[in-house]
Amino acid sequence: MIPAGGFPGFGGFARCLALIALLIWLQPIALSHAAAPDASLEEIQQLGEVHANRSDRLAGNVTSVGKKTQRASEAAAAVFVITQDDIRRSGVTSIVEALRLAPGVHVARVDASHWAVSARGSNGVFANKLLVLMDGREVYASSFGGVYWDVQDQPLEDIDRIEVIRGPGASLWGANAVNGVINIISKSSRDTLGGSVRAGGGNLEQGFGSFRYGVKLGDQTYGRVYAKGVNRGAFDDHAGGSARDAWSMTQSGFRVDHDNDAGRTLTLLGGAYQSQFGLQFGQPVPTAPYSAIIRDQGRSSGFNLLGRWREALSLSSEFTVQAFLNHDYRREPFAVQERTTLDLEFQHRFLLGDRHDVNWGMGYRLLRDAFGTGTLASIEPASANKQLASLFVQDDIGLIDNELKLTLGAKLQHNDYTGFEGQPSGRLLWTPTQQHSVWLAVSRAVRTPNRADCCLRTLRGAFAPDDPANPINQTTGIPKMPLLWGAQGSSNLSAERVIAYEMGYRFTPHNQLSVDLALFYNRYTALRSWDVRDFTYQFHPGYIEAYLNRRNSLKASSWGSELAVSWKPLPFWSLDAVYSYLNINLEAPPTALSFDNNTSPRQQASLRSAFNLTDSVDLDFWLRYADPVWRPASSLRVDGYLTLDTRLAWRPFDRLELSVVGQNLLEPKHAEFRQEVLGPSLVLVPRSYYLQLNWQF
Amino acid sequence: MKADWPVKRLRERRMRLAVLLAVGLSGVAGANGDMDVETLKLSYLAKLPKFIEWPAAALPADTQAFTLCVLGDESLAAIARQLGQQQAQQRSFNVVDGKRVGNLGKCHILYVGNSEEWRAGSVLAKVQRSPILTISDIHDFAKQGGIVEFVEQDRHLKFEINLSAAGKAGLRVNSKLAELAVKTY
């Protein structure tokens, strides 16, 4: 329905803008008016009849910043919450695409089934400085680092929110939470009663569907089951043909929640998936043209199970016990991997006096893997058991009630590669008034070695015999021959380290506008590198293989900022603007080689408009821009891009929604990222559209 | 002096136009019936006490201000301070940080923020026999023995009332108010 009074002054655009500006200042008047004195019953009745809108973005709850529930506006960290509403109105069809909504996060599609996702730099398909959790279950892969995004999904309508923290979260979450933590949180099953069916298809999303059904199992016990399947078409390759990277995935899962009045919460959830994906990569070979394009099918499957028990012990303390099991299998032409993770965690929180809110806990993790040898990578030893033990403590100290809060915390972990690693942090939050808050943080975090760092040997390129750059030609006495080169792990490892200095400012003049700014300076040391003087040779008839040995000889510093502005000019219109800037300086000794440089754009921006044309029709636009990646005048450079998504949805009945979504509309196709290893040529993301039906019953 | 008049009037007219526009536009908002959840909760908080009767011992007739304790929700505490100037039933609100749990006995109204869900049961157990109007948006708060629970239903903010909990606390809930509740216990 068009609101009574019609739309304000659409006759003149300038007038409209003036009105909007005016509205920003007028809304607080409406607010103070709302909390009027002496009431009559009619007034109370009327309150029950108005539409209740979500408050501003910063008023939402987060749990990942302090391992407890707190408001986003009271977190001394750069946190952004992607809500269920954001996901629905963005038109995305997978969790990983939804991450584009957050500031400071670079989401780039490498091909149809591979994404590079990172925050504050160091992006790549195996981006290893971002820790990702699904409902508290870590999905960071212990084999090569990074996350296999193609298999991290679930029905989007069952997601409550995605908490995105930029900057270290290591004092609570542990190793690898160097540049950020992403926690994907699904709804409690008490909020997903009944059925939901989603089905759709288009030119790229060739057919997708999901089904969920939730029931009340007992007095305070609820459960749901779900299944989701996607079938996605191939992207275009650089030359204009098909990249032959079409893929499909099916998954299913369940969740059971029980709450009792005494403050006991039990959660059990699990899932299983399998996927097939086309892929191609360039394999260095000792004969001309020294690179063979291999096209093949990959396969992956797995399951997971998580149980959590929370119990209030008294008015001022509670504990949580959690266990999860992850099993993943992945077969790609260059490597076959099977990984099992068992994780146990205990956490205890208590209030101490008036000022202290203490959280402490300990954990144990067993990582077990087995690798099969692929065509251009091998892992030695082929299987291993690794253990990780952790202890953390964090204290929220109220220095001045509701005004100044200090958070001190540290996590101590022992891993089998580098031994003990300490990851402390200190955070200060100052809330002088309800409208303004400022926070400061200093933290240390580490990225611990994975199986690839210690034990992987992989080919990366080849030199022709006549290539002047061929190192063999620079050595006298050896006949000309092809050289295949690669990289290999080392047993002499150190963790990559960062000291991060952050500050943030939040401004919420009223419930319709919020401004969230974060600034950071990161100092990295002992970053992974390969030393060009330190080779291991292998001689073969007619060619030589040379492997560079892994080191930790790089340093880097980065600084940047992220800004998120959320504004609701009219009750039926909201705007979200996001901008991020990142600058990285790598300090490499002349003999060190890095594959991790300049893989993130310097600037990114997006503007999203969500407009309710009527109560049953939504019209959404989402404009996105990213600077080039692999910036230096390099053959690897990928140009920046500007693109637009749009969504039109109609709800003819309360529980039925039909929508049409167009994605990447501004260009027929564009590139977003070049895979840092093994990627043969650039794959282009085409313009696409799909139709979708969502029925709830 | 007279020469100033037209200018002044023009200015005045312009200002009135702006105000009219403002009222008109907030009217649009009002007609559409949109308010954010926080504002709604506050509005309820300001209006509900009028329909609750405290025992005279807990709220002598000459009490100037309700003591509203806010547990957990720090932002709400800040907003509630604004509410402090508001009045309900000729009484203003004296907003207190409920963090000092030992002081809860002094509260007339206790708002439990949803960050405190983990200990809501313990808090209720502690105050259930005291004349305190407990209010929260925590799921199943009323069922657990809280007196008023805000619930969201199809984009509306409504409330449930636990009359037997109110009885235990020695509070009398106006029967007309109880009729407005979506659910009573």
Provide an overview of this structure.
The complex is a heterodimer of chains A (697) and B (185). With 697 residues, chain A is mostly beta strands. Chain A has one domain (56-696): TonB-dependent receptor, beta-barrel domain (Maltoporin, Chain A). Chain A has six helices and 39 strands. Chain A has a 22-stranded antiparallel beta barrel. Chain A has a five-stranded mixed beta sheet with strand order 4-9-10-7-8. In chain A, a hairpin with a 2-residue loop joins strand 30 and strand 31 (573-587). Mean pLDDT of chain A is 89; it is low at 1-11 and 26-38. With 185 residues, chain B is of the alpha/beta class. Chain B is built from six helices and eleven strands. Chain B has helices spanning 4-32, 37-47, 74-83, 120-127, 163-169, 175-180, and strands at residues 34-36, 52-53, 65-71, 87-88, 91-97, 109-112, 133-136, 148-153, 156-161, 172-173, 183-184. In chain B, the strands form two sheets. Chain B has an eight-stranded mixed beta sheet, with helices on both faces. In chain B, strand 6, helix 4 and strand 7 form a beta-alpha-beta unit. Chains A and B meet through helix 1, helix 2, strand 1, strand 3 and strand 17 of A and helix 1, strand 1, helix 2, helix 3 and strand 4 of B.
Quickly describe the structure.
Chain A contains 6 helices and 39 strands. By secondary structure, chain A is mainly β. Chain B folds into 2 domains: 32 residues; 148 residues, Rossmann fold (3-Layer(aba) Sandwich).
